[in-house]
Amino acid sequence: MRRKSTATTKGTPTTRxxxxxxxxxxxxxxxQGTDGxxxxxxxxxxxxxxxxxxxxxxxLFVGDSAADMEAGRRAGILTCARHLGYGEREELARxxxxxxxxxPHQLLPDY
Length: 111
Hints:
Blueprint: E1 5-7, H1 12-21, E2 30-32, H2 41-52, E3 60-63, H3 66-75, E4 78-82, H4 89-93, E5 99-101
Helix pairs in contact: 2-3
């Protein structure tokens, strides 16, 4: 079963509002912000995995910045660089992501 979570250094309430505004909230099983603990990005990822009962080896973290790639690496999670986001392709490549995509639909199994 594929489950999806967001993990952000923003607060959970703010993140929920943004996801609702863009009609995306229904695509996520969990929304994780930095509510009540330090805003270390890799800690946020690990907290999200804990909430899902998932192991780092069973997950893929998709991010669009070098900071995202760094957080994924530090958390021990496979990383996927989302090109055409905040980060430049070369900047993302410095972190040697495990894969890369140009559009979210490329994550779908039938793509």
